[in-house]
Write a structure and sequence with these properties.
By secondary structure, this protein is an alpha+beta fold. A five-stranded mixed β-sheet has the order 2-11-10-3-9. The chain is globular, with a radius of gyration of 30 Å. It binds 2-(butylsulfanyl)adenosine (IVH). 2-(butylsulfanyl)adenosine is lined by residues 102-104, 137, 139-140, 144, 160, 198, 250-251, 322, 341, 344.
Length: 715
């Protein structure tokens, strides 16, 4: 993508734009900003190593947007502002691939790979013991994507389809930021190329997305693969963008020069081809980590088993490795069957699927009353974990799959992601299976009074609107004490359930008046743990206000919204008088949150709960953490970029940084030409050397730093 020299320049020019120092006509600024933003997209989405903050990136983006809005003639199709187009209307279009996209043969162990090696050598008329190098890389488990570039511009993207024809989805590919809209293929004489890759979502993003969807009562995605493949087919590019998809590119499919002659073979090896794609800005499995060039099949097999052992720790879902003859000329000589290339093979990891019987469905209730069905199955081992309970998400999930009690079902566990039911094995039904009846009244409720369930328009979840049995209170207490909300150290679900069973914990207020004397004599407790718990709860009373608001479990009133609201009040009970309009006046607070929060405060029992909490000493006012820090405009370090290195003697690193910030400094993470001051403690390492070499950085001892903060006290 870029040489180190122009990277420093990209950085410097970006900072100049951010500081408003660039004086040039829009005709010069717009193309430069486009180039800078392309660089930062690459740093962020391909390298995972941004050099600007999100805010700075957005600011640059807005500068470009403003220039382009003022003069539409400055807009180019590959401008970073042009990723999101309008929604698609009509059905998708089938397009032929430049070269048919075949499948891969499968192997499962080292012996299979050795057999493959022998076959390849036979095809190539090679001696069995002559050396043959292989490129090995992960087999990503997502959706295939085929990208066509012409004259260095992305002109088309398609799914794999049936291998010959794919579904055109250029609009959607354009919002995947790891896919460059332009790439300098011409540097390698490539005029028209097809590159192939896999669109995937990081496992942690997948889980976070599902957690947010569960919170909002929306349908959950079954697994990362479906999230990616489904994402490629969405009609609205905006929705695709929300899925945080990424594209790993794993090969050229085709590439010709201006005259139409092949220009890929000249690269020599698959390894070199991937190096070139990396250089051109694509996200490619990295050498030395995800991919390796093995000198022979034994080394290739070792790399495969190494990855099988670490697949769960990897950020993405992979279902195996792909082993490819490295030499491109030999690949051509080995050729293809109608089904797969003879020069490549998939090494498939142990299956993460199993079948078992669906015995029963139980229900759970969440903190806002969401009813979640859970399948109870005959215990079965799935990739080393015994499974007997699997979430069925909601009513639609059961209906769409037509699940019945007594069904044999196919289970799958994707990576470290929770197991799910892929489908019932309909062929194995004998007629004794019983359809699952969705309950009309709350199935958890233990009282005599039945509570009808409700399902709001646009939501997938059925909810119990009026809990009369206390089950929802229990879930709310569990959430209230959790890390996400009041973050009471050491107090988790287990304690809450235990204290609830003892009758000590029925409301959120009870958390703050637990009978520690009794707790200390519970089995497994003792004075020490009771004291620790008390200390943790006392500490939690001082949590910022947003955590208290978040810990109330008001439907849709999430972390972001509670933080915004906490900034705008003096006391939690101010909200009792707020109108919906006052909420929606806050930027980013929508009508649903406004309505839910006003409804909640309209209930006198809820207001009484907050009064009780205040009396128990729980903080009900905004703290420093709730209030965004005002920009420091005075102090010895205003506008300076600072960095600390080595071990400080008088202050902790954190204290020093806080003091520096209070005195106007910005703390940066690395030595660069933008660093103004380096404060060195004892045993400074490479940072000091680097800063000295730059010659532009002021180096300060800890004592000098303290002296600058409070003259006269530095030594
Ligand atoms: S090479 C001619 N390399 O696996 C086919 N495929 O059966 C050559 N896949 O859906 C394919 N990671 O999208 C290749 N590193 C990788 C891959 C990979 C995932 C997918 C591919 C296709 C299937 C091939």
């Amino acid at each position: 993508m870029s040489t180190p020299a122009n990277q420093a320049q990209y950085y410097a020019r970006s900072k100049a734009y951010l500081a408003g120092e660039v004086i040039a006509p829009p005709q010069e600024q717009a193309p430069e900003l486009q180039e800078l933003l392309r660089y930062h997209e690459w740093r962020y989405y391909v390298q995972d190593d941004p050099v600007l903050s999100d805010f700075e990136y957005d600011t640059l983006y807005k500068q470009l947007e403003a220039l382009e809005a003022a003069d539409p003639g400055l807009v180019t199709p590959d401008s970073p502002t042009q990723r999101v187009g309008s929604d698609l209307t009509g059905d998708s279009v089938s397009v032929p691939h430049l070269v048919p996209m075949l499948s891969l043969g499968n192997s499962y162990n080292a012996a299979d790979l050795e057999e493959f090696d022998k076959q390849v050598k036979r095809m190539l008329n090679m001696e069995e013991d002559s050396p043959l190098a292989y490129a090995v890389e992960p087999k990503y488990d997502g959706g295939t994507i085929v990208l066509v570039y012409e004259n260095d511009q992305l002109i088309r993207a398609a799914t794999r389809g049936n291998g010959v024809m794919g579904e055109e989805m250029t609009h959607n590919a354009r919002v995947i930021r790891s896919i460059p809209l332009q790439a300098a293929f011409s540097k390698y004489g490539l005029h028209r190329v097809e590159v192939r890759g896999e669109v995937i979502i990081r496992k942690d993003r997948f889980e976070a997305m599902n957690a947010a969807r569960a919170e909002a009562g929306e349908t959950l995605f079954a697994n990362p693969r479906n999230t990616a493949t489904g994402g490629l087919r969405m009609k609205s590019p905006k929705e695709v963008a929300d899925r945080n998809l990424e594209a790993f590119i794993y090969s050229f499919g085709y590439g010709v020069d201006q005259e139409g002659n092949d220009a890929v073979q000249a690269l020599g090896t698959h390894t070199k081809a991937l190096d070139v794609l990396t250089e051109l800005g694509f996200k490619v499995p990295a050498t030395g980590y995800e991919r390796e060039t093995a000198a022979n099949i034994t080394e290739a097999a070792d790399f495969c088993t190494k990855w099988e052992a670490r697949r769960n720790e990897y950020a993405y879902e992979i279902d195996g490795m792909v082993v490819k003859v490295d030499d491109l000329a030999l690949q051509e000589r080995a050729g293809y069957t109608s089904h797969h290339p003879r020069w490549a093979i998939a090494y498939k990891f142990a299956a993460k699927q199993a079948t078992t019987t669906l015995e029963n469905v139980e229900y759970q209730v969440g903190k806002i009353g969401t009813i979640t069905p859970v399948a109870k199955t005959t215990p079965v081992s799935l990739a080393g974990v015994m499974i007997s309970s699997v979430s069925l998400h909601n009513e639609d999930f059961i209906k769409d799959k037509d699940l019945r009690l007594g069904d044999k079902v196919l289970l799958e566990r994707a990576g470290d992601v929770i197991p799910y039911i892929v489908k019932p094995l309909e062929d194995l039904r004998d007629g004794s299976e019983v359809p699952i009846e969705w309950p009309t009244v709350c199935p958890i409720n233990t009282t005599e009074v039945p509570v009808p369930l409700i399902r709001e328009a646009g939501e997938a979840a059925w909810r119990c609107p009026e809990c009369v049995c206390g089950a929802q209170d229990l879930q709310r207490i569990i959430f209230h004490v959790s890390k996400a909300a009041m973050d009471i150290d050491g107090m988790g679900k287990r304690y809450v359930e235990l204290f609830h069973a003892k009758g000590w914990l029925n409301t959120i207020a009870d958390v703050y008046r637990l009978p520690y004397d009794w707790i200390s004599v519970l089995e497994g407790f003792g004075n020490k743990s009771a004291n620790n718990l008390e200390a943790a709860i006392e500490k939690a009373k001082q949590q910022p206000l947003w955590r208290l608001l978040y810990g109330l479990s008001i439907h849709h009133f999430g972390k972001k919204a509670t933080q915004l609201v906490a900034q705008n009040i003096e006391h939690v009970l101010d909200l009792a008088d707020w109108t919906e309009e006052q909420f929606t006046n806050i930027k980013d607070i929508g009508p649903t949150v406004a309505k839910n929060v006003t409804d909640w405060f309209a209930n006198p029992a809820n207001v009484a709960l907050l009064r009780e909490l205040e009396e128990l000493g729980v903080n009900v006012k905004p703290t420093d953490e709730d209030r965004p820090a005002a920009e420091v405009t005075e102090g010895p370090f205003v506008g300076k970029a600072m960095l600390f290195t080595g071990s400080l003697q008088q202050l902790s690193r954190k204290e020093a940084q806080e003091k520096a910030k209070a005195a106007g400094a910005r703390i940066v993470s690395a030595v660069s030409s933008k660093l103004d001051i380096l404060v060195v403690g004892e045993k400074p390492g490479s940072k000091l050397k680097k800063a000295t070499a730059l010659g532009t950085v002021t180096v300060m001892t800890e004592a000098a730093f303290l002296e600058a903060l409070t003259p006269g006290q530095g030594t």
